[in-house]
Amino acid sequence: MSTATTPAPARPEAEQSGIVVRGVHRRFGDFVALEDIDLVVRPGGLTALLGPSGGGKSTLLRIIAGLDYPDSGSVEIGGRDATFLPPQRRSVGFVFQHYAAFKHLTTARNVAFGLEIRKRPKDEIRDRVAELLELVHLEQFADRLPSQLSGGQRQRMALARALAVQPEVLLLDEPFGALDAKVRKELRDWLRRLHDEVHVTTLFVTHDQEEALEVADEIVVINGGRIEQVGSPSELYDHPANPFVMSFLGPVTTLGGVLVRPHDVEVLTDERAGAVRAEVTRLQRVGYEVRAETRTADGETPWVQLTRAQVTELGLAEGGTVWLRPLVETPFPATALPPDPDGSDGPGGPREPEGAGAAGDGCTDRVPA
Amino acid sequence: MADVLTRPTDPTGPTGPTGASGSGTTTRPAVDPRVRRARRRTTRTAWVLRVVAVGYVLALVALPVASVVQHTFADGLAPVWDVLTSEDFLAALRLTTVVAGIAVVLNTVFGVGTGYLLVRYRFWGRRFLSAVIDLPISISPIVVGVALILVYGTYGWFGGALEDAGLRVIFALPGMVLATVLVSLPLVLREVVPTLEEAGIEQEQAAQSLGANAWQRFWRVTLPTIKWALAYGVALSLARSLGEFGAVRVVSGSVAGESQTLTLYVNDSYQEFGPDAQRQAFAAAFVLMAVAVVLIVVIAALRPKEEKA
Which domains, from first to last, does chain B contain? Predict the structure, then answer.
């Protein structure tokens, strides 16, 4: 199972090639980017640092990489104190959002860079580069310049380059952020498979909850410079520690004064115990799903995620009456939801035509401008 | 509508006659002649501008250049050869090469170093430093020369002290190098800075995380990134250094065979009377011009590479 925050579990290998961050603070002028961060990244895992932009996740990654230094606190990599080591002596591989490919070198020379710096023998470099290019499926592009590669290919090259020096940890900063949606999805699957092959301790930053849920073994949710929760994807999704985590990891709506996931709401056509009566105000078809927006007598506007088959089966129509019942208990009252610029599902919120539509909240990518 | 589909590259689209759509399905669709005309329209304004530009350049550049060539070779090759093998000319050529060479090396080192400093670091006085570097090239070279004398001359601020220590600056090689360095100070820097800015810092950070130390990062990442801009800046700098006259004139003393650069040689010969002196002036001017042309060709060849990089 996945590990948690400090204190570190008494596991010997946690000291071998994991990352231990203790009490890290970092401020930029008046802005507090990181506040008292304690984190243990278990060795061999694939961990996501998830959070909204400006939440401090990239700063934390850069501090681990040595591209920035904490105001206070310490960083340990593989059991060694690395707080004040320069990046070149940390044994970390770093992958940038915008690839940072060496534009004047071919794919093969890019991958060979770290090995050439380490003055490895020529044939060893050649063999290792060939092996890595095969791993990232770029064998036939060995002699191309980065400008002749697509974004996805460049990022795979950057990954091979980082892996070439056999780093103890691999750090990826929004690795798929600059790619278009389809390539991003392909690379996610590929990264997952690659990690299953290579097993290097990997920490990647993302603001995309879907990416984190899909790829990571363990997710660290960071917001406002603090760690909100650490756990496996299903732990976080099913048992969020607070309303922020709940709303950031997936869609939420309010029903009967509590936060619920819109797919965890039962839609009934007759009155039953615990169900709230509501009027269907809008049925919005989004791809494979249908979003039913409703309004209750006390002014709440919960919405429910359904399939087309369910809508047909229930005979739902705009203007009809239904009874809604949460399928899962959630401990968070609706008022606890932090104010969200994307729109409000809070009680008594003004109902707009596009609907609690902001309801899409959580369904949509939270991609910052 | 079919019209638009068969001619996807035609931005004017539906303005073409609909009759074209029938025949355009199998072969390449015919483009309306009106469209073709509109696309490569050369207006009367463009013609006038073209003539003015070409005429202006001819009058200012081509005619003077041609006349120098004509005067140089008016009496054939032999007299030119005599000048080019004369002791004074060779001494001037040597001196120019030494002065320009040292100046370009200094400016290259300074330009790359300071460019890196200005782009990669934010410090107090950064913009001031950047502006001051442009100063020497924007004030008159004569003023630069006079200012150097005021500082390094025998009666200048610390010229006397330097002379006591055995280093003569003004009316000697160091002064000429200084003057040349100053008048071409920012040329390398200004070429390197935009390229460094555009390249960003991430490649260097990537190299660092791959284990490269500062020197390896510079040699393997930064330098290859800026190489064409650097070459361009060096070529510009060299052209400017070879051609420098005013500042060097003030600080050199211009003694033939001793402290006379090629430009001074041209000037001093030209002001003497007699056909021999004139011939010397033209021959040396021709050499300077030929070098400049070669440099311009080099620069022109480098520019597209710089843009591509």
Answer: 1-72 (no CATH), 77-308 (1.10.3720.10)
